[in-house]
Structures are given as C-alpha cells and as structure tokens.
Design brief:
Number of strands: 26
Helix content: 10-25%
Order of helices and strands: HEEHEEEEEEEEEEEEEEEEEEEEEEEEHH
Pfam family, one: Ig_3
Strand content: 35-45%
Strand order of the largest sheet: 1-9-8-3-4-5
Largest sheet: 6 strands, mixed
Shape: rod-shaped
Radius of gyration: 47 Å
Keywords: Signal
Number of domains: 3
Number of helices: 4
GO biological process, one term: synapse organization
Organism: Dimorphilus gyrociliatus
Bound molecules: 2-acetamido-2-deoxy-beta-D-glucopyranose
Distance between the termini: 156 Å
CATH architecture of the largest domain: Sandwich
Protein name: DgyrCDS2471
Length: about 425
Amino acid sequence: MQMRYLFVLIVLLLLLNSCSARKRRKRGEKNAGKRNSEKKVDVSNPADYIWAKHTVAAGDTAVLHCSFDAMYPTYYAYKSIDWTKEPHEKSGKGKLLATGDKMVYDNNNRYRVFTPSGTALSVLIIRRAKKSDSGLFRCNLSDSGHRHKYLLLNVTDSSIEAQTSPDEVKGYVGENVTLWCNATGYPRPMIYWTRENSHDKLPDGTYQHWGNSLQVSNTKKTDGGSYLCYVDNFVQPIMSYVFKLKILNKETKAKFEAEMFRYDSPKLYVGENMKHAPPPVRGRAYILVYKMYMEDYNPNMKIHMTWFKENKKLKRYSKRFMILDYTKSSKPYRAESTLIIRTFDNIDNGNYICHFQTENLSNWQVFKMHKKPIDPNPPFGPTPSPTPKVELVKTKMPKTEKLYSMDDEDFADESSGHN
Ligand SMILES: *[C@@H]1O[C@H](CO)[C@@H](O)[C@H](O)[C@H]1NC(C)=O
Ligand SMILES: *[C@@H]1O[C@H](CO)[C@@H](O)[C@H](O)[C@H]1NC(C)=O
Ligand SMILES: *[C@@H]1O[C@H](CO)[C@@H](O)[C@H](O)[C@H]1NC(C)=O
Ligand SMILES: *[C@@H]1O[C@H](CO)[C@@H](O)[C@H](O)[C@H]1NC(C)=O
Ligand SMILES: *[C@@H]1O[C@H](CO)[C@@H](O)[C@H](O)[C@H]1NC(C)=O
C-alpha cells in the first residue's frame, strides 16, 4: 500500500520536475535576455565593453554601424538587429529605437536605420545630431540577448576660429601677395576663395580656390579688388570674410639718393655723409646731385625736377648756377638732377632743395651749404673775381665735363638730355 503511494508520488514528482524544467529552459532564455537588457551601464565611465566610440559635432550626421557578420556569416545573415538607446541614469529605462529595418523611435525624422538584406549589419543614422543624442547605444541580434554591442556617441559643440589677413591688403605691381584665412575648429572647416562677385575670375583664372591662402603672383593692377574667403564646417552657417586688395604702382617705391662733391675731387659724399664734405673753394664749382631709382615705372611718367635756394626756384642756366637733368627710360628707371654752383662764394651758402614730382609721388632733399669757402691753392691760380663774367664761365665748361666723365654713361646721355 505504502509502496503504491510512494510510486505514485515519485511519478508525480518526476512529471512535475520535467515540466518545470522545460518551462525553466524556456524562461531561461527570456531571463537571460532580460538580465542583459536590465544590466545598467555606467555611461560616465565607458569601459572595455564599448565597442566603438563616435564623436560628431552638433548639427552633423552621426553614423553608427553594428555588425555580427564576422562571426557566423550564414547563420546570422538571416537575423535582424535591434537598436536600443541606453538610459542615462542607472535606474532609467532603455528606449527601443529600431527593430530590424523598422524605425520605432522617430525623432523628427532624424533617425533612420539601414539594413542591407542578407547581412547581419545595421546602420543607425542620426541626422542633425543634437547634444541630447549623446549616449550609449546598444545593438543586438533580435533573438539573442547576449549577442550585443555598445556604441558610444559623443555629440560635441562645433566651433570655428579664424585668423585672417587684415581687411585691406596692399601690394605693388609685379609682387606676390598672399591673403590668409586661417581657420581651425571642429569639425575641421574647409576654406575656399572667390572674387566678391563670384562670376569674376580669380587671378589664376579659376572661379574658386580651395585652401587657407590665396596667392596672387606677379600682381597686376587688375588683381586689385575685393576677395572673399568662405569658412565652412558643414555644420554651422558658412562664415565669410572680405578682403580689399590694393595694387599700387611700383613708382611709389622709388629710391632716392643725394650726393655732393667738390670740383677737384672724385670723392662723393652721399646721404648722411654730406655733412663731412669738404668746404667749397672760392671761385670754383661745387656740385649737388639728387637721384631717383625705380625698379619699374610707367613709361608715360613725367618727372619734374626743380631746384630751390631758400625756397626760390632756380633758373636752369644763370651766372651762378647750371642745372643738368638726366633720365634713363629703361629698367631700372633712373632720374637725376645736378646743380652746379659754378663759382662758389659766400653768397652761395644756404639751403638748396631739390624737388622731384610725378603724378603719384613727390620727394625732396635739402642740401645744407654752410661751410665757409676756402681760398684756392696755387695750382689753381689766383682767386677769380667774386662776380665772374659769363665769358669766363663758358671757358670753364670743359672742366665740368671732366667731372662728369667719372660716369661715361651719364656723360653721353647727358648731352642729349640737355634741354
Ligand atoms: C534583442 O532583440 C529582441 C528583439 O527585438 C528583444 O526582444 C530583446 O530584448 C533584445 N535583447 C536584449 C538583450 O535586449
Ligand atoms: C567628447 O568629445 C569632446 C571633444 O573631442 C571631448 O572633449 C570629450 O571628452 C568627449 N566626451 C566623451 C564622453 O568622450
Ligand atoms: C596663417 O598660417 C600661415 C601658416 O600656414 C602663416 O604663415 C600665416 O602667417 C598665418 N596668417 C595669419 C593671418 O594668421
Ligand atoms: C612669386 O611667385 C611665383 C610663383 O607663384 C614665383 O615663381 C616667384 O619667384 C615669386 N616671386 C617672389 C618675388 O617671391
Ligand atoms: C598714378 O596712379 C594712378 C592711380 O593709381 C594710376 O592710374 C596712374 O597710372 C599713375 N601714374 C603713373 C604715371 O604711374
């Protein structure tokens, strides 16, 4: 009797056991999934379990991809992938974003999921990313809780910092001028240039130039004008900067030189050294020269060279003075004017000024003649009278020529330069 009851009990127990075991097995899978889904990840401490980390700038497109293809390609190829956004707080609830190719969460059409068929690959695309999209994303094979990956998305602020050339840039004809538009930031900005009117060509013949600098080589007057540089990080509105390029004539870059010398010496006293020039000899010549050099010039340029003594304009020929002008119309352009104080005497002391004037430039030099004239030494004969006769001066002309023979080229040109 007891044995029968015992047998029935054992059978019942066995039945119960197998039943619950089957149930347990079933529930087991579910629980495994549940356990995983409830396992909270500390977002602030992204550790080894992060499979991929993406950083995008706010406004940019974030592309998260998840793939299980590599493991058992044929087996997984027919499974779909789900996407979940993990909660920010440990106690929070995850948000299901997509299952397979179906978007569950659609934030203003910004979230898209892309799943090529026949693959265990899923791409989650978040357009115009916001800072609130940052966080931990999880993808899992749809029927397997333990096959999953975590992806961390970091949406950062975008920024552009630009350091540019000044608004107005000047250059000279024939020079190379570079405009700078140095911009950095995140995402890295692209920089391109156009004329202010984008239908006008850039100096290199194109309409658009990419890069942080725009070099204008061998500038021409027509290169002057407004240029724009655009800074685009594809996230923020495009920033632009205007530059005014002014191309000046080289003429304004003339070099000037002043020199003086005494009739009896080949020694020239140039610029600052003029103050060390020897004193004039009474009755003999003293010569003042003002020169201008230009690398390039406009052939139509007319230069006026004028001499003054104490602000009174001098005649080209007179009893006391002779002015010789010389110009050389080839490269480098050269112009010079020579004042010969023919027979120096006390009355010739004072300030002499030579003034050069063209359409676009004006320059002058003051020559200070304040040293008391000395008397000539015997080889030069007796002191001429303080007011020499014109005839006497004429006979002295060869002497002046001799002085100019120091520079033969000057001398040859000079006779034709007489006017
Ligand atoms: C994996 O995807 C399935 C199907 O969407 C889902 O039911 C399950 O909860 C997911 N697994 C985990 C661990 O989240
Ligand atoms: C996000 O990216 C920014 C900029 O690269 C970085 O400073 C910050 O530490 C990143 N945050 C995380 C959580 O990775
Ligand atoms: C821009 O950067 C270049 C180097 O790439 C530098 O030579 C130039 O001086 C910079 N210009 C400005 C305006 O910062
Ligand atoms: C100007 O640039 C050109 C090439 O762009 C170069 O050949 C030339 O040497 C440069 N001239 C100067 C003065 O730097
Ligand atoms: C003087 O400058 C003006 C304007 O820049 C220019 O048009 C003109 O050709 C220049 N004159 C000479 C002689 O170079």
